[in-house]
Amino acid sequence: MLTKRQPPGILGGQMTNPTYELVCGMEVHAELKTASKMFCGCKNDPFGAEKPNSHTCPVCLALPGALPVANKKAIEWTIMLGLALGCKINLFSKFDRKHYFYPDLPKGYQISQYDLPFCYDGKLETSFGTVRIHRIHLEEDTGKLLHKKINGEDVSLIDFNRGGVPLIEIVTEADIHSPEQAKEYGKKLREILRFLEISDCDMDQGGMRLEANVSVRPVGTTEMPSYKTELKNINSFKFMEQAINFEMKRQEKLLAAGETVVQETLGWNVSTQQTFSQRSKEEAEDYRYFPDPDLPPIRFTQAQIDVIKKSLPELPTQIVERWENEYQIEPRFGTKLFNTASEANIFESLFSSAKNKKVALDKLASALVNKQVSLPAVESDVEKIINEFAKLNSVEDVDTGELKATIQTILSENPDVKEKYAKGEKQVIGFLMGQVMRVSGKKLDPAAVRATILLSLEK
Amino acid sequence: MTDLNKLTLKKAQKLVAEKEVTAAEIQQACIDQIKEVNGKLNIFLSHLDVPVTASEGSLHSLPIAVKDNVCTLDFPTTASSKVLEGYRPPYEASIVRKVKEAGGVILGKTNLDAWAHGSSTETSDFGLTLNPRNPDFLPGGSSGGSAASVASDTCIIAIGTETAGSIRQPSAWCGVVGLKPTYGRVSRYGIAAMASSTDSPGPIAKTVEDAATLLDFMAGHDPLDATSNPAEHPVFSNSLNKKISGMKVGVLYQDLKGLEEVRPYIDAASKVLEDLGAEVEYSQALDPHYAISVYTIVQRAEVSSNLARYTGIRYGNDRSHFGDEAKRRIMLGTHALRKGYADKYYLSAQKVRAKFALDFEKLFKKYDVLISASSPTLAEKIGASEGSSMFGELADMLQEPSSICGLPGINVPCFRDPETNLFLGLNIVAPAWREDLVIQFGDAYEKATTWNSWRTND
Question: Please, what CATH class does the domain formed by B4-457 belong to?
Answer without folding.
Answer: alpha beta
